[in-house]
Amino acid sequence: MVSPQPVDPFKDLNIYTETYRTVGDHPIQADVMIPKNAAPGSHAVVFNFHGGGLVCGSRKQPEVFPLWLSDWAIRTSSIIISADFRLVPESNGLDILSDLEVLWTWLHSSLPSRLSTLAPGHDADLSRILSLGSSGGAWCALQLGFAHADAIRGIFLMYPDLNLGSESRVKGAEAMGETNPLQEAWQVPKAEVDDHVNGMKVGDVVTVGEDFSRVRLVVGLGYYGRWQEFFGKEKVLYPFERIKEGVRLPKKVLVVHGNKDTMVPFGSSEEFVGLVKKYLPNTDVKLVVAEGKDHGYDYPMGLEEPSIREAARWIEEAWQEQ
Description:
Helix 12 (266-279) links the parallel strand 7 and strand 8. It contains 13 helices and eight strands. 38% of the residues lie in helices and 21% in strands. It has an eight-stranded mixed sheet with strand order 1-2-4-3-5-6-7-8, with helices on both faces. It is α/β, with parallel strands linked by helices.
């Protein structure tokens, strides 16, 4: 479960907000985060995709931005690109994939010149790119890896929500007779989900979902089995299916998952790692078990946490590999 941040994760970063695409009249934005103490030079790039089940959250919502990521960026003088994307149910999975591809194009076509204006002396080393995502955001990080396997050094997935085609995800916890701790706590009624959906208009775009009602919507869509209705059924949206088809990933993939996760089953990460080993033997995949940890355990933690320390070492090794 997500805990409040003990300190501001952005206090030691210079943040420059850029619009990387516009859909209708709705700007979709990314924050370019550069450590305040970074010396001029060429810096590795880390994409950060926020959690929130692809329904809620935002690129710089403190509650879903890892404190350790800020610490690590400062230590390694890396640039973080923390991006919004269109959210379900107003948009679907194909819309999000489109946003990711436009973001990738923007990184290469626009960021270098923007950095020369925003932060003179600082360049992005586009030969050292890492794609990182937490929970639902791990889906974005992984999909970017599928699309650009040769250009991304590694993918880092925190308690990833990737088994989107599972029976319980498609049918819903209510129909499967399963419990959901947030549904038990909040008792989100079906009518609340129906009211939100019925109030949507064609062309609605939501990219920032920090309101508590969006968190309740995540729970309700899953519990009542309405997730796939809006996310979509296309095979390209389902990572497990893509792996079975042999779609390549970058050379290195790291998964960190707490074995007491009450939101995303730890077993789904074990299954993911097993599939990668079976179908993509050229990918070096590793699972780090965060012993006794629940969902979102890392957000308020620095680099001293053992599983995060191990992950940080892995990232630095990925940087060094050619």
